[in-house]
Amino acid sequence: MISYDQIKNLSSPEKIPIGIEGFEHITQGGLPKGRATLVTGTSGSGKTFFSIELTVSCITKFNRPCVFVSMEEPIEEIVKNFIKLDWNLAQCVKEKKLALIDMSYHVSNGIEVGDFNLKGLLVQIKYAVEQVKAQFVIIDSIAALFYQYENIRIIRREIHSLINELKNKGMTVIITAERLDNYDSVSRFGIEEFVVDNVIILRSILEDEKIRRTIQILKMRGDVHAQGEFPFIISKKGMNILTLSSIELKQSSSNVRLSFGNKTLDKMTGGGIFKDSIILVNGPTGTGKTLLCATFVQVACQTNEKVIIFAYEESRQQLIRNAQSFGVDFEAWELKGLLKIVCAYPEIMSLEEHLLSIRKNIDEFSPQRLIIDSISAIERVGSERNFREFVIGLTSYVKKVEICSLMASTTAGLAGASSITDYHISTITDAIILLRYLEINGMMKRGIAVIKMRGSQHEKEIREFEINDNGVHIGKPFKNMQNIILGIPSSAGIPETEKLKQLFDEGGEND
Amino acid sequence: MTDYVFELFIAGNDLLGKRAIKNIKLFCENTFQDNYTLDIIDIEIKQELAGKYRISAIPTLIKKKPLPEMRILGDLTETDQLTMELNLDLD
């Protein structure tokens, strides 16, 4: 029987950060110290990448020496593969922070005659641990042992004792193992069941012709962690886990109002937009969304605010030329360092990479305002779920850094109708401005309406929206018309003569 | 110089190691009489050698001579299998 003295001083294991972007967030602190963690995934899911980044990161960011045992790839190959990422394994070895053990299968282990154990491997690891005073032991991949030896029963027993010996020495152990299917039993040889405390699953799934990578903490003994799969991307800067669903709605709200660059529009929104709000401008193609964006840039730059534009529909030259035609000189603002234009085809990257690129650009430029033209262009890059995560990730980020953001979205039809973008985004945005075409007495007109303005009053009228050489021009509210927003305007039943008179009664509330 | 040269890697007082030593000695006495050399290397004492010779499994027997060099692991209890695997051209 266990006595009280044996257990009275036990405490739950301390978690240690490993420095992979987002990992501390989903594990709520890192890997439990002195425990064994299995990293499993199908071929190409990033197991070796994860283990090497973990190794390099622990050494360079936290000064925790590591022993890395490679069972599949020869060490020389691994070192070569990661030079491009500026992960200098050779330097770590030189500084005596890293010991590499090559157990790849190029020398035959020999013919098995009778019972054996893996003390040779254990001695090699222990020796390496002493040499560099290691705190981590990473074995990539432990499952290779099952291919290197014939007697599976012995290997199972020996893996168990190997990992226990390392844990007893105080090592934090990370082992990898391959699995055959993304949603099958955890690992091929059932290692997890008898030997590890924590299980991490990496997935690489082909979805709509794009690779989607996710990471999941399947179990973490004796501790809490974030549930579910988190998308991650692998770039030259390493792994980046996007922790979207864990973002809290705790952003502060600002009372400072900013101008749209148009007096009537400011009036319509009850005095301008809040400094930290997200505005969605929605309308069919050609209604003037890009023009509103240009106006937005102009007013910001004039008041010395920095603006960043992410353009996914037009090239840089097109953008500049178009703005010029409204009298907005993008290039001049760029020269003053107040404007940054980022143009990209939506298809060149995955949504996760787009998000990362947007974040990176924001961090580098630190703008006060942001424009995305258009958010609907990005929609076609990934699946619906993918897109939702992107939108949430983006909006929560701009809220966090308090950037006034304007997002243009194009509706599918010429008249009315919502698109998927609106569906995902409308609940997160603080203000929604609709631009619509309307056909009145054989004339194409544009209408503008503010349909949502969080934390403020706004006009309920639909006004006429005109574009001329001077840019945006917002006219009087349409009177006696119905169904403008729904797409098919009709007269509200007043005499024709009166209607005509009202329609062409110009003047009044212009800019 | 003897015609048959073996190295046996063991780890401390490991039971399998002891068994392997006993078995290989008996096998060599019976098969080669005096015409053999057997080096026993304890990797717990000479830790760096485990890495140098890439020894993972214990016990590991390496046949150095006659060539080709060959590795056999296990406690060598199956003498018949050992004879067969070593593939020695004995008279």
Question: Tags for this entry?
Answer:
heterodimer, A: 511 residues, alpha/beta, Rossmann fold, 2 domains, 9-stranded mixed β-sheet, 25 strands, disordered C terminus, B: 91 residues, alpha+beta, 4-stranded mixed β-sheet, 3 helices, 4 strands, 35% helix
Assign a percent range to the helix content of chain A: 25-40%
Biggest sheet layout of chain A: 9 strands, mixed
Q: What would you call the shape of chain A?
A: elongated
Distance between the termini of chain B: 20 Å
| Number of E-type strands of chain A | 25
Number of helices of chain B: 3
Instruction: Tell me the Rg of chain A in angstroms.
Output: 30 Å
Sum this structure up briefly.
With 511 residues, chain A is α/β, with parallel strands linked by helices. Chain A contains 18 helices and 25 strands. Chain B has 91 residues and is an alpha+beta fold.
Explain this structure:
The complex is a heterodimer of chains A (511) and B (91). Chain A is α/β, with parallel strands linked by helices and 511 residues long. Chain A has 2 domains: 12-241, 3-Layer(aba) Sandwich (Rossmann fold), CATH 3.40.50.300; 257-503, Rossmann fold (3-Layer(aba) Sandwich). In chain A, the strands form 5 sheets. In chain A, strands 5-4-7-8-3-9-10-11-12 form a 9-stranded mixed beta sheet, sandwiched between helices. In chain A, strands 17-16-18-19-15-20-21-22-23 form a 9-stranded mixed beta sheet, with helices on both faces. In chain A, helix 6 runs parallel beside helix 8 (152-168) and helix 14 packs parallel to helix 16 (384-400). Chain A starts with a helix and ends in an 8-residue tail after the last helix. Chain B has 91 residues and is of the alpha+beta class. Chain B has a domain at 1-16 and 41-73. The longest helix of chain B is centred in the first third of the chain and has 18 residues, at 15-32. The two termini of chain B are 20 Å apart. Strand 6 (111-112) of chain A pairs parallel with strand 4 of chain B.
